[in-house]
């Protein structure tokens, strides 16, 4: 049995054909062109789905992960930020079901990424997991007893705009001191530029200088690692999962900073939580979307 998994992000819409045993077949990526509004996003999504359906596989359903707060029960985008203008309120499931006459499921992209990691990643037997993604923003998802915990209004795991430093750095949401203003990859690069006076474009360049112990970069990265450890420790106290899974673009340079981060976690007087890195990269959301539609087609709870 094959299905289509799709991941709708702020910059790209990525889709692939996946088998029920987790085999990855054809894939297609198109730009989201989000600034042109919801019709352009839908048009990109349908291009991905139509091209994959033309590949002559026996597709039995379509799973879609999207940025934003998603009402997965009704397949509706409950709220999307200005990264996807006009996307709030779109009845995504019914639009795609009516267009393609196939079963469809829709959920938040971070929820799908966590499900994908649990299905095809390196830690398949873990039942309670908190995922935190450190990329352009800070997102995440929660799973307890093997089930996603989406929250009362579909914001569960959306850590980015929790307050971290009262009155602190200005966040792109307009408030001050959000987690995202400290721990996103974007904030990491901004702070490196501010504190060194040099213009870094990518986090990888900052980590590279850290690896070479460039004097003014060392405290930037050490602060980031300490703040991340503090954040994870705070979540661990209240949520108490078996494992934290850290994903997002910052993980690409993990061989440079991960050991220091683990040491930092161990400095806490409490027993340090188990923290692992996500293993599927930007494929996780597509795997998760595929696994969810497979469950729906098989009549299982999802
Ligand atoms: Zn914010």
UniProtKB/TrEMBL annotation:
<dbReference type="InterPro" id="IPR043129">
    <property type="entry name" value="ATPase_NBD"/>
</dbReference>
<protein>
    <submittedName>
        <fullName>Transcriptional regulator</fullName>
    </submittedName>
</protein>
<dbReference type="Pfam" id="PF00480">
    <property type="entry name" value="ROK"/>
</dbReference>
<dbReference type="InterPro" id="IPR000600">
    <property type="entry name" value="ROK"/>
</dbReference>
<comment type="similarity">
    <text>Belongs to the ROK (NagC/XylR) family.</text>
</comment>
């Amino acid at each position: 049995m094959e299905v289509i998994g799709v991941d709708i992000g702020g910059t790209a819409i990525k889709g692939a054909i996946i088998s029920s045993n987790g085999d990855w077949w054809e894939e297609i990526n198109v730009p989201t062109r989000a600034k042109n509004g919801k019709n352009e996003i839908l048009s990109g999504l349908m291009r991905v789905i139509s091209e994959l359906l033309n590949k002559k596989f026996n597709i039995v359903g379509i799973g879609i992960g999207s940025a934003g707060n998603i009402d997965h029960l009704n397949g509706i985008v409950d709220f999307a930020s200005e990264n996807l203008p006009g996307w709030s309120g779109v009845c995504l499931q019914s639009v795609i079901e009516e267009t393609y006459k196939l079963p469809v499921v829709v959920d938040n992209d971070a929820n799908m990424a966590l499900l994908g990691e649990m299905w095809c990643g390196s830690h398949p037997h873990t039942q309670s997991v908190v995922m935190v993604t450190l990329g352009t923003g800070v997102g995440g998802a929660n799973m307890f007893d093997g089930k996603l915990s989406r929250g009362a209004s579909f914001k569960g795991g959306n850590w980015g705009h929790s307050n971290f430093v009262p009155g602190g750095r200005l966040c792109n949401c307009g408030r001050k001191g959000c987690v995202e203003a400290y721990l996103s990859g974007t904030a990491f690069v901004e702070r490196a530029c501010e504190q060194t006076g040099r213009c870094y474009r990518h986090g990888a360049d900052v980590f590279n200088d850290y690896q070479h112990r460039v004097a003014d970069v060392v405290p930037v990265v050490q602060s980031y690692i300490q703040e991340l450890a503090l954040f994870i420790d705070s979540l661990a106290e209240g949520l108490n999962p078996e494992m934290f899974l850290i994903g997002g673009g910052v993980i690409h340079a993990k061989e440079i900073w991960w050991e220091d981060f683990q040491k930092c976690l161990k400095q806490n007087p409490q027993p340090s939580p188990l923290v692992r890195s996500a293993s599927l990269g930007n494929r996780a959301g597509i795997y998760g979307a595929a696994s969810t539609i497979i469950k729906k087609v098989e009549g299982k709870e999802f």
